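Hi R.,

Here's the chain you asked about this morning:
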Amino acid sequence: MLHNFVSLVVVASIFLVFIVASNHVSAQPMSSLQQNINAIYAVSIVPGAAQKDNTYHYYPPVIAVPQGTTVAWFNNDFGQPHTVTSGAIGAADSGSVFNSGIMPATANSFFQYTFSKTGDILYHCEIHPWRLGKVSTNNVYEIGHNFQISYGAGVSWDLTKYPRSLMIIKPTTVPLDKTAAISYNITIQDSEDKKLFSNNYNTIGDSLPIELISGGNETRSYGPDFSSTGAYHVLAGFLENDKAYKMTAEISSINYQKPDSRIIDEFIFKTVS
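And the predicted structure, written out as tokens:
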């Protein structure tokens, strides 16, 4: 169960820990070699992906990320090589955007790519060409008094088309770098200011990537995708179609020191059907 998951410290190798709960699976790659990984978001090639009748090949199969996001795919189907190849299966332009080549069936096998252009990109495995993945990239963002927030699925979020949306919250009024230790509080309320979710997040770096996941009846958070960096995820059972939500972001500490004044902003996003 996710709430029983305890972060592990793994030395000199990369492991993918798969957690299955309420039909959600997450990949948690952790390594002392993370200097080789620039990604903030992890996608897994799941155990059994080489089997045609497996429920998933890539998980999550469809993601929506802000422009400039680097995604990493990890081969967790031990004993089976795979590829991450852009384009539809059998398409003339297959591999023209990215192609991992053959990813060996080892625990430290990964491929990463930065999505610098907007739009939808399909991808597949050339060795097992029966399942597609998709990445949607969006350049919509808002700037508040203290933060910029970028929306993977846009500020008007179609829950049917995109069940998941990565949001990247970046402070704009305080000097930060890739090594800064920052603590955030994220709160989400409905249009009547009823609190639906609140959680504290500790990150290393100059932004907080947080993904909201629609569907299900529960609300809880897990992550990050990597041992100290990467995307956090919120199973957001409260999300409904055609609703407005207020997200409040506040920094509670920078390098373990409380800010001299409040660093806080509110953003409104809407769901559509």
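Confidence is low (pLDDT under 50) at residues 1-33.

Let me know if you need anything else.
M.
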